[in-house]
Amino acid sequence: MSNNLPKVAWIGLGIMGSPMSENLIKAGYDVTGYTLEQDKIDRLVAAGGTGASSIADAVEDADVVITMVPASPQVEAIAYGPDGILENARRGALLVDMSSITPQTSVDLAEKAAEKGIRVLDAPVSGGEAGAIEAVLSIMVGGEQADFDTAKPLLEALGKTIVLCGPHGSGQTVKAANQLIVAVNIQACAEAVVFLEKSGVDLTAALDVLNGGLAGSTVLTRKKDNFLKRDFAPGFRIDLHHKDMGIVTDAARNVGAALPVGGVVAQLVASLRAQGDGGLDHSALLRSVERLSGSQV
């Protein structure tokens, strides 16, 4: 594909990365992808992308490298070392890390990349699998204005709300706040669901009317069917929300911000994971409330 758009390397083709990279291909970008599972690389190729045999192979010709992996250790594993992005991408390349990691990891990555002449943005997203597929993600970005301006057309193929939040790490800080709000919101919805059901109310009707008022939320809209059907196939796994609650409680502690409700919900997420539900969608916080309310789950 010959066009004037930047050449993109995409590292990490999971629940989010696969549909996002495909949206870039649909927007006309030349995308070369690498991930650990061959079937995910095959999926990218089937969508019109190019498969790579390694990170080095993927990034060597790229103008923009996008990464979407689960957590800080994976970002460090793909970025650093002789086989990593920083050693193999060309000077002047732009690295856009869309993973949700600690703000400090993003700050460190930007510093180390600068030594190699590689520019970095942290650009975590909100909107889950559905938002990734529909290209309506909210993208919170940390880094330099000029780099943000370069990346913006590309990010517009992936999301709808794209905001530069401040210097390196700021995107991750806003994402951490996002995950705090989402978890507390899901927990409140879950408590309401158990209360309504135990009261004998028509749950579908109740959630419809609640979602039309001040109690309505994107969380309730997106997760209503999960609650109604007890369908906890992951859009966003409890394991990952557990990681994110660790990030936000730790970061808040470092800056001296109290998270009294967030701390409780972080423990509820941790307990759900300890009970073996880590692979379920975060709407499975409902199971925790059911157990506490005496239901056999």
TrEMBL record:
Q: Which UniProt keywords apply?
A: NAD, Oxidoreductase
Kindly give the InterPro entries that the UniProt entry links to this protein: 6-PGluconate_DH-like_C_sf (IPR008927), 6PGD_dom2 (IPR013328), 6PGDH_NADP-bd (IPR006115), HIBADH-like_NADP-bd (IPR029154), HIBADH-related (IPR015815), NAD(P)-bd_dom_sf (IPR036291), Tartro_sem_red (IPR006398)
Q: Which Pfam families match?
A: NAD_binding_11, NAD_binding_2
According to its UniProt record, which residues of this chain constitute the active site?
175
Domain 3-hydroxyisobutyrate dehydrogenase-like NAD-binding: from-to ranges: 169-287
GO terms, biological process: glyoxylate metabolic process
Query: Source organism's superkingdom?
Result: Bacteria
The 6-phosphogluconate dehydrogenase NADP-binding domain covers: 7-166
What name goes with this protein?
2-hydroxy-3-oxopropionate reductase
Originating organism: Streptomyces violaceoruber
